[in-house]
Amino acid sequence: MRRKRVRQILTFASALPFDTIENVRDQAPAVDVATADRAELARLWQAVARLPTALKDTLLLRTVEGLSQSETAVALAISEKAVETPLLTGPGPLEQILEII
Description:
The protein has 7 helices and no strands. It is mostly helical.
């Protein structure tokens, strides 16, 4: 079965013009880009960890978990206004922490 599949792939590949095969680009990001992205993500998570608990919980539920304002309010047992307020003022502390790190 495996040999048959390999033959199918090789037969398909040999039918393609060489220029087509040569110009196929790898869709994965370059190693340096992936490394920089991971470093930036780690830096962001460090900043999020330093946020006050109420702001961090609200921010994570709304942005990462994708909950609505009302769903977040129910999950945190607070009013919808209490969910909205930290998000309106929230980026300030996060930006300040990111500048420090």
